[in-house]
């Protein structure tokens, strides 16, 4: 199996935090996180965003455009490394 790139891992963070990923793809993400400090940092950030959203939006519905803004913020964080 090909190792995931940071980009591929970051894109799956929200699904990962939602426990929407299982089996081999989940193993791959966790393997990457064990070795990649930069993704660990980003995951911590995503987790905060996720908790923020869930605390304010009980039905799991986010305001329109919110996800896009989060992705932009993640991308900026990524470029800042
Ligand atoms: Zn990484």
Structure, explained:
There is one protein chain. The protein is mainly α and 81 residues long. The chain has one domain. The chain contains five helices and no strands. The longest helix has 20 residues. Bound molecules: zinc ion. Zinc ion binds next to helix 1 and helix 4.
Concise overview:
With about 80 residues, this protein is mostly helical. It has helices spanning about 5-10, 15, 25-35, 35-55, 65-80. The chain has one domain.
Q: In which range does the helix fraction lie? A: over 70%
Distance between the termini: 27 Å
Radius of gyration: 13 Å
Low-pLDDT residue spans: none
Largest sheet: none
- What is the N-to-C succession of helices and strands? HHHHH
Beta-strand portion reads under 5%
Number of strands: 0
Defining key terms:
binds zinc ion; mainly alpha; 81 residues
Topology:
Layout: H1 6-11, H2 13-17, H3 24-35, H4 37-56, H5 66-79
Helix pairs in contact: 4-5
Bound molecules: zinc ion.
């Amino acid at each position: 199996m090909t190792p995931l790139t940071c980009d591929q891992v970051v894109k799956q963070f929200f699904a990962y935090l939602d426990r929407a990923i299982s089996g081999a793809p989940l193993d791959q993400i966790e393997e990457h996180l064990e070795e990649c400090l930069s993704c660990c940092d980003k995951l911590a950030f995503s987790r905060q965003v996720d908790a923020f959203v869930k605390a304010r939006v009980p039905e799991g519905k986010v305001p329109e455009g919110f996800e896009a803004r989060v992705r932009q913020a993640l991308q900026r964080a990524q470029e800042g490394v």
